[in-house]
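Consider the tokenized backbone below.
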């Protein structure tokens, strides 16, 4: 089997590549706009390609001979909100082009797609399962909702075998802080590990859904192996996640490091932001809308075959 990962240099892409290399999937193509690194000790052929998947010729060439595609690339929430046209170009037009190019292949490939709980929004129940209506409140969430419908339609037509996971906040990305909303949560773990204090613009009692990159990659692998007959009326489902408060996350990290509790301190959001927004001290735009699905439990009512092993705060914090 020949597998392509688009967005291979990202947090989930790197973890997915390691998992697939360990399972000796056949051959692997790692594609990103920056060079990806083959997994250490890979026992299968690994090809690294650099380019923009929105470029038609590059994308068509990538797909030649491919049996399975993991589409993990996206312009994230902050950037999509700041630049509407670019967000649409990458997150919607880029996917549409990929789907149309799949029509040219001799057999429909499996398409694994990373959606987001940002597809949910507005007033939500305490538990947000697969059957809750998608009412996104951000451009990024809207892009993901559109993508889910497109993949469902192409699957219905037999042009791809689509499988979609809605991801919560995925922890923890290495490197310097970014303006991504999720990275402000990740800072509660990453900065103390580096010996730095961190101030998070969240109330301590703010609840959010999180998972680790390892568990997200494991779930994608399991989803790829599920028989097509097991799916219901849609190919999109939530990734079961851990629901924690900001204070719980910081406390478990402090316990793991045996560091001072004040390694993470909390500020309050500005009056313009939702209670779970990381504005103000976090350095995000004051009116940046944050996906409200991030503050609820997000189990899946259809995805038991892909549920990751049970996770707790310590497990995520030690990732």
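A designed sequence for it:
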């Amino acid at each position: 089997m020949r597998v392509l990962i688009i967005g291979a240099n990202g947090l989930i892409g790197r973890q997915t590549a390691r998992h697939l290399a360990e399972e000796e999937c056949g051959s692997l193509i790692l594609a990103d706009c920056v060079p990806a690194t083959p997994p250490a000790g890979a026992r299968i052929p690994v090809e690294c390609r650099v380019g923009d998947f929105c470029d038609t010729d590059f994308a068509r060439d990538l797909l030649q001979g491919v049996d399975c595609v993991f589409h993990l690339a996206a312009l994230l929430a902050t950037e999509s909100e700041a630049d509407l046209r670019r967000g649409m170009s990458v997150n919607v037009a880029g996917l549409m082009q990929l789907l149309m190019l799949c029509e040219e292949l001799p057999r429909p490939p499996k398409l694994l797609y990373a959606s987001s709980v940002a597809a949910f929004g507005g007033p939500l129940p305490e538990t947000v399962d697969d059957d809750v209506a998608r009412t996104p409140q951000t451009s990024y969430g809207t892009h993901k909702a559109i993508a889910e419908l497109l993949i469902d339609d192409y699957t219905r037509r037999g042009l791809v075998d689509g499988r979609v996971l809605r991801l919560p906040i995925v922890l923890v990305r290495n490197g310097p802080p970014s303006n991504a909303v999720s990275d402000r949560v990740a800072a509660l773990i990453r900065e103390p590990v580096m010996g730095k204090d961190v101030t998070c613009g969240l109330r301590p009692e703010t609840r959010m859904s999180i998972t680790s990159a390892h568990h997200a990659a494991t779930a994608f692998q399991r989803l790829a192996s599920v028989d097509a007959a097991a799916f219901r009326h849609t190919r999109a489902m939530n990734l079961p996640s851990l629901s924690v408060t900001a204070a719980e996350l910081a406390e478990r990290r402090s316990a793991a490091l045996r560091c001072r509790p004040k390694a993470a301190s909390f500020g309050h959001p500005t009056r313009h932001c939702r209670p779970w927004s990381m504005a103000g001290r976090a350095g995000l735009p004051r009116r940046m809308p944050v996906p409200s699905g991030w503050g609820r439990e997000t189990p899946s009512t259809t995805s038991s075959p892909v549920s990751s092993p049970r996770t707790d705060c310590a497990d995520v914090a030690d990732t």
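The radius of gyration is 19 Å.
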